[in-house]
Each structure stands twice: as structure tokens, then as C-alpha cells.
Amino acid sequence: MSFEKTPGWFDWYAHPSKPLFRLPPGAVDAHCHVFGPGEVFPYAPERKYTPCDAGKEQLFALRDHLGFARNVIVQATCHGADNRALVDALCAAEGRARGVATVRRGVSDAELRELHAAGVRGVRFNFVKRLVDFTPRDELQEIARRIAPLGWHVVVYFEAADLPELWDFFTALPTIVVVDHMGRPDVSKPVDGPEFALFLKLLREHGNVWSKVTCPERLSVTGPRALDGERDAYRDVAPFARRLVEEFPDRVLWGTDWPHPNLKDHMPDDGLLVDFIPRIAPTPELQRKLLVDNPMRLYWS
Ligand code: 0GY
Questions:
Q1: Which of 16, 100, 169, 249 is deepest in the core (most CB within 10 A)?
Q2: pLDDT values of the chain reduced to their tens digit, one per residue, 301 residues
């Protein structure tokens, strides 16, 4: 089956620069996706967008180019709960990738065991309204109860404005809860303002909540333009990410978000994204925790 990309869709950056920042040995890209290829792994009928194909070979080439050792591949909404492209990538990665799947209420124990054997260690619950249809909370609670005994965690994706309404649901989950993209703060608001304070409170009061300090390219208003030739792209996002890394050094993860679905104004150079890391994790110790210790503990232990 062939698929037409959503009009205006940006393909991923074909020739990313070599980062100036040298990643520590064993670094993990803990948030990335595979899309299709649609001919082999068709996109889900209920999807809200049709991406460009972005397969496992390209992902592994990017991993090697940037200097990562491993990937955590997160099921994207365009594949719905059909995890075949994800599982195929995990199996091809020879132990160098783990996955986060999407499952529905009817998933069998045998299917969960197969996903585990392939390298899946979590499920993703998506609350971003432009990406998914509503799923009843009791279905998600049931899934969380089913996956908890496997030692898996729940990854949640939501917009900052929806956190008050989701708070009780998140704080009742029986597993580690990993928040995508810092809960999508509005970075034009102050880092010390009430909206981000609520997110910090979630992590302060709930030791099982982690955050991905990802997606400056998605959250930034100032954008990728560096000033004075310095690599200071996405400078408005840095204070938010740095606050999380410094206050919760053992509960943060970093990832490229390749191939960057749904970006409207630019497609980031992944090399530049890696160069963002030392601005949010300024010491070798913080960098090691963010890029190696934390993802290894969550996905490989
Ligand atoms: C991301 C962000 C987005 C998309 C998805 O699963 C997805 O479709 O997560 C987005 O559009 O913000 O993490 O890739």
C-alpha cells in the first residue's frame, strides 16, 4: 500500500552535522521513532497524520553518526496500536534498542510477553488531542495494572494546560511514569511561573515521575537560529530543561525525537540538537546520568 504524506510534511534532515559535543560512552537516544516504511508496515487507519517513511536503517545510521550506543524507540500515533514496525526495529537492533509500545484493552498476556521478549519496556498513553482520539481512563488504568508486573513503565504525553485535569490519574499510576517533552511547557512564560511550578511539584511530590528533557525544536519560540555564530539554538527552552536536570538528575532522559513528526516551521539538524545537551546538563556527571545511567537503569536492567 502506498501512502501520501500529509501536505506540508517536512522530511527528516538528510545530512545532520557532526555534533561538537562528544557524547559519553554508552549514551542512549531515549526518544525516537520509526515510521513504516508504509509499504511494509502500513500506517494506522485512525492516524491523524501520514508521515514520511523513516525506517530502522536510517535510525541506526543516525545513531552511529551522532555517537549514540543505543536507542529507545517510542511507538508513534501514526502506527496506532500496531507495533510491528517497532518490534521489527527492536529485533534488528541486536540488543541495542528498547521500545515503548501502544496497546489496547484487549491485548493478551501472550502478546505482552512477546513484546517484552522483543525489548518493549513500557506503554505510551497519549493525551494530546490533535494526535489521538479519547481513550477512557478506566481502559488506561487497566492497561497500567496489566503491565506493572512485567516491570514496565508508563510514558505519558500531554500539554501543560491539561496537567491539572490529569494530575489525579497520573499520581495514581502504579508504575514509573515518564513524561514526554517536559509536559510541553509554554517557554514564553517564565521558568519560575505557576505553570512550570506545577510540573516541578509533580516530580517533587512523586518520586516515581521522570521527565524527558526533549524537544527544544518543538517547544522553542526563538527557534534554531544561533546568535553570533555560537551554538545557542533553542535558547528559550534551555532554562526549563536545565532546571529539571539539576533538580532531578536521576529521573531525566534525553532523546532526539527523530524523525521529528509534525514540525511546522523547520526540521532540526540532529547534530545541533546534541549540542544542546551541555547547555542543559553542564557537568560530566549530569551528562552521564542523563545519557547513560538513567536510561540504562530504566530500560536495560
Ligand atoms: C513526538 C511528538 C509528537 C508526535 C507523536 O506519536 C506521535 O505521533 O508523539 C507531536 O506531534 O508532538 O514525541 O514525536
A1: 100
A2: 789 999 999 999 999 999 999 999 999 999 999 999 999 999 999 999 999 999 999 999 999 999 999 999 999 999 999 999 999 999 999 999 999 999 999 999 999 999 999 999 999 999 999 999 999 999 999 999 999 999 999 999 999 999 999 999 999 999 999 999 999 999 999 999 999 999 999 999 999 999 999 999 999 998 887 665 556 789 999 999 999 999 999 999 999 999 999 998 889 999 999 999 999 999 999 999 999 999 999 999 9
Active-site residue identified among 29, 53, 180, 257: 257
Distance from the alpha carbon of residue 127 to the mean position of ligand 1, in angstroms: 11
How many alpha carbons lie under 13 Å from residue 144 in its C-beta half-sphere?
22
Give the cell for residue 205. 511530590
Find the distance separating the first CA and the last CA of the chain, reported in whole Å.
39
Residue with cell 526533549: 214
- The answer to whether residues 191 and 239 touch, using CB atoms and an 8 Å cutoff, is yes
Does domain 28-299 fall under CATH 3.20.20.140? My reply is yes
For residue 180, the CA-to-ligand 1 centroid distance in Å is 9
Residues with CB under 6 A from ligand 1: 33, 76-78, 131, 157, 180, 218, 257, 261-262
User: 275 an active-site residue?
Assistant: no
Give pTM, 2 decimals.
Answer: 0.97
Every domain of the chain and the residues it spans: 28-299
